[in-house]
Please model this.
Amino acid sequence: MPFIPHTEDDIRAMLAAIGVAAIDDLFDEIPAALRGGGLAGVPPGVNEMEITRLMYERAERDGRWLSFIGAGAYEHHIPAAVWQLATRGEFYTSYTPYQAEASQGTLQVLYEYQSMMASLTAMDVTNASLYEGASALAEAVLMAVRIHKSARRVLMPATVNPAYRKVTRSLVRHQGIEIIEVPYCTECGHVIPAALNAYAGKEYAALVIPQTNFFGVLEPADELTAWAKANGVLVIAVANPIALAILRPPGEWGAGGADIVVGDGQPLGAPLSSGGPYFGFMGCRVSHVRQMPGRIVGRTVDVDGRTGYTLTLQAREQHIRRSRATSNICTNQGLMVTAATIYMALLGPDGLARVAQTCHANALKLVQQLTALPGVKRRFSGAVFHECVLQLSAPVADVLHALKAQGILGGLALTQDYPELGDALLVCATETKHDADLERYRENLQRILGRRFRPAPCALKPSL
Amino acid sequence: MLIFELSRPGRRNPSQAPRPAPGLNAIPEGWQRKSRPRLPEVSELDAVRHYTNLSRRNFSIDTHFYPLGSCTMKYNPRACNHLAMLPQFLARHPRAPADTGQGFLTCLFELQEMLKEVTGMAAVSLAPMAGAQGEFTGVAMIRAYHMARGDGARTEILVPDAAHGTNPASAVMCGYSVREIPTDAEGNVELAALRAAVGPRTAGLMLTNPSTLGVFERTILDMEKIVHDAGGLLYYDGANLNAILGRVKPADMGFDVMHLNLHKTFATPHGGGGPGAGPVGAAARLQPYLPLPLIVRDGDNYRLADEADLPQSIGRLSAHAGNAGVLLRAYVYARLLGREGLQRVGEFATLNANYLMSELRKAGFEVAFPTRRASHEFSVTLKTLREETGVTAMDVAKRLLDKGFHAPTTYFPLLVAECLLIEPTETESKQTLDAFVQAMREILEEAHREPQLVKSAPHTTPVRRLDEVKAARELDLAWNPA
Model:
């Protein structure tokens, strides 16, 4: 049996030592009616050679594509050392560092991660990860409600990633928390601060501010933060960690900055991998740390005065507080954080800034080239990071379909989530794109749209 | 030494940064970052050496026997990692159209089917990211079921007092209040107490079986009847599924909804604290409430189901489809074991646990439930050892590190005094188990002869016992240049 090392001799000796005749006897406490019933629906086992062949076939079937999709998950170059180190058995097959002395590797990595992330977001402290960005936002909402103590309403701009909004609703609605959607300006692509005046006079626990938002556009975060502070509302920032290398971070926003920061750490070394595993990051002011969910690592000393690292503030967590815990989270995304820490160490502040600058420049180049085509316009006037919404003069689904036939995934159609935008396409270009890639997109889009502009054959036959 | 302390200003990794090129910049001046993020400035060799050396300060399954009760630290087959990381799987964007991911979706659909078979459930969703999220999902589904029937008076979830902390925490996140049911001297939920606790306010009972105490809930069929007769539903916490995998199906025990921990039972890597995966299975009456997405078949093709397919779904738990790469690893594992391999898991996990239990008893250790069979794990109580020598479960755990073994789970379940919860898993050999017993024998002897040696352990790890009080009182949670 695969991975079961027992020989017949072993089994015999063990059964004798226990004092039973057969392994079956060890199940004698289980009612007979419940035992047996095989797994007929599971195929017979295969060996490693066979499963390798099958998986290679399936992977080859899926193939590789030239992708310009962003929408919350981003293609970045991951240095080879990141996953070679992260999949070392000592990282890959260790578990939660409950015995700190036997887990100083993991614990120090997490402390370094917390330090890097706190600085990147300009917050005092961060935790050691949540599952991913959307559920991290839900946890931030729950945290803000706990801190605020009276309001159970949260303001959520429509420019926040639609998936994040859906997930937040799924996770918080059982606790009687209402999410109020804040509209955006369809010309500039972000929230207008004056629109918040509509909410004056009622109590809100938090205002969520995405920076940049789902459209790739910069929000007027300083003014939005100022409004929140003036109205006793906590600010939850949702950020892209690569963008933070060149954008003013949430801790440095106006009026004292954000209270809680969350986002998805996928861009820091996690491959796209059809959506996971990624990791959620969360940071906050130190005054709120006891309300922050997730594991937190602290630095301390051992009995000999040696520096060491340990899980701390565990009284927030489910294994201590049970039904009064800040969250039910236990296993989180430890290995992804290990990879992110190594990624950030390999790139450093200048490397990360260079990645961000190149993403930004490539996106602008792409948008310039595509909007030079008839039938393609930039939808919003707001400044963007590395994604942009384009307005097409042709049905976006048809355009994407035609691009796909050329091996190009042109972006995300916004028709389902933002029907008010009509034929709108969210395109992204990261540092992975060369000029030749942008040109390939441009020339194919030109050809596809050009077909639509060719005059139709004349419907009238010449009369004699 | 921290990576920051290895930094030197100006040290860079040119091969890791994109080529410098005059680029466009349209970030408004006021939004450009002025403060420099405090990320390390080290060479690639420095970084590789630093993290390689850090890894060597960890105990792990690949390096040590790791009998953490309830965590199922079985061997993580390397093929699973290799195949889940094939470049085409890694490169695929979550929002890419379904027809660019049929290979991937086929794997996930087949995993769903295998998990249905293993659990006996009518339907499975792979969406939850870990066991705790699976528990939240299951309780939310129970709530949705009752609300759909206008049964809004059911406000209580019942939980054994021995339950894992995530159970009551998850119930509260779903807006329920929690009522604990006591455990009897034999390690099972007290039936009389359960009978007294159920009523019109009972939404459901969350149960692990075998329980967190390491013994099978023998009266499960009675418990099932009590709860169902009162109109409540049954939730199965699959943390201990390894004990009965291939032998008993949760659906046959009467459970309506459950989660599995793939990072336990299906050998996906623990990763120093995740990522895991907590798929949920549902009996037919709860199927409409499953979280999105599920993988569905449309003729010859697979796609992700959405709100239109499952209008009563409790919703989405994450932005995409769950921990996809973890699911691929579980798929490869399940295919490598196949029908016969999966059927043997429960048997050999139970054999190993019972062997270890009987050998430790012979060595002089006190088992918490001496009249019971071990499931895939068992509890040892060091209460008497502490009375006689002052040596505690914590001390024994730390001394085991010196002997080259990761300690078992300590002080859980809370009901057993000075508890060690020991789970060997089926992938360990008799030799390894014998070596562990020998180490425990030595520690017992040391505890009587020279207790200070055990009480001041560990001695050979990179750090010795850490001042946890200081860590919580003088918070140092992020490095700052001093």
